[in-house]
Amino acid sequence: MSRDRENKSYEQLFILFSAKVEKVIIRTTLVFFVLLICVQAMLQIPYIRKHFTRVEPLEGKPYIWPQNGKGERT
């Protein structure tokens, strides 16, 4: 009987511990997901993107859509 009680108490303690760990993991994942969304939104602003990324100055001249009526670049 004593062995069964020890197993049950261990299982209960493990369930409590794993529930707490799961909450921490879920909260951490949500925080990082929100940060990812915020940073990706900030990268849509050219001024901020210029200061955040190293590759932006290496991209070259941006493509400019043709302004004449024929659809050709001048």
UniProtKB/TrEMBL annotation:
Keywords: Membrane, Transmembrane, Transmembrane helix. The chain crosses the membrane at residues 24-43. This is YpfB family protein. It comes from Paenibacillus alginolyticus.
